Amino acid sequence: MVWLLAVAALALGIVVPEGVAALLRRLGLVDVPNERSSHKTATLRGGGLAPLAVIAVVWLGVWPPLGAGWMVVAGVVLFGLLGLAEDLRGLTVWARIGGQLAVGVGVGAALVWVTGVDWWQLLLLAPAAVFLINAANFMDGVNGISSFQAIVTGGCGLAVGLIAGRPELAVLGAVAIGAFAGFLPWNFPKAKMFLGDVGSYVVGALMWGIAWWAFIATGSLLVGAASTAVYAVDVVTTLVRRARRGENLTLAHREHAYQLLAARSSHAVATCVATLAGAVNCAAAIWAWRAGIQWLGWAVVVAVCAVYELVCLGRPRKVET
Predict the structure, then answer these.
(1) Strand runs labelled E in the chain
(2) Model pTM?
(3) What is each CA distance from 136 to 89, 250, 313, in whole angstroms?
């Protein structure tokens, strides 16, 4: 069943973007480059509507409507629609944060109720949703990076679901892999269509839902955090660097670690480095959990994130006197 649904998602993932591209052209959703853009030509924006549609359609006939998987997919859809509203009309900062928090609280409460975990987890779930949605949005700045992140996250969910006996989690991971693998040729190595806010919100929602579900399935915070670690570290360290320089943190910029690497090399190199780091983190975390030596898994994840930052930032520039 898992592999059949993965193939179905991949098949739809290949076909659906063509129709989405035609729709985006009719709507005039085109991303025109500016001084803070990493691209140089006008490109369709909002392509994330394709994997969002694929995930929703494939999931419709899978599990009973009260399963945890339905709650996670509902969150993916709601967050994706919020991102689509941003693509279509633009939202104020407070409208975006308010909408993200509302969906995080609502879906988080549903997950807590369905799974029967302690209600205090909602205090972490809602803020985590806002952080990861925005982290995914900030990190969606070079070709393919978000699609590969969704594939890595899906792979983590698939592996944990199969090992821990959580078939819904395995199916969600497999469907995410298929949906974004099908979209990937539109966005990597050269972009004919960007995911847009709708896509980055979907990726962030998948990171959120799968990370939490993996934690519940394994009881391991390491396994839950592994797929989000690279994005979280890049976003937090970038904010810290900019704050130390006294910069306005609300202004758009091109100073994320992966963007600095892309500027020195290429989009493909930056995407591959981030993807490799994420995949190694997930593999190390799952292995450490299974082996019962989670301290070693944490050490590997910390080391991988540190190496990622060093590779992306490169050698510090000498200050001329």
Answers:
(1) 30-31, 43-45, 193-194
(2) 0.92
(3) 20, 16, 19
Q: What is the pLDDT of residues 65-102, one digit of tens each?
A: 657 888 899 999 999 999 999 988 888 888 999 999 99
Rg (the chain; Cα; Å) = 19
Strand partners, 44: 30, 193
Q: What one-character DSSP code corresponds to residue 120?
A: G
Site of tokens 């993996």: 214
List C-alpha distances in Å: 75 to 1, 11, 141, 202: 23, 23, 23, 9
Q: Which residue type sits at 246?
A: G
Which class for 63: exposed (0-12), middle (13-18), buried (19 or more C-beta within 10 A)?
A: middle
Strand order in the sheet with 30-31: 30-31, 43-45, 193-194
**201-248 pLDDT per residue, tens:** 999 999 999 999 999 999 999 999 999 999 999 999 999 998 888 887
Cα distances from 234 to residues 28, 29, 114, 295, in angstroms, run: 32, 28, 33, 22
Could you tell me if 16 and 184 are in contact, meaning their C-beta atoms sit under 8 angstroms apart?
A: no
Task: State the residue for tokens 């998948």.
Answer: 206
Contact 69, 169 (CB under 8 A): yes
CA end-to-end span of the chain: 65
Q: Which DSSP symbol is given to 188? A: S
Cβ 262 vs Cβ 270: under 8 Å: yes
Mean pLDDT (the chain, rounded): 89
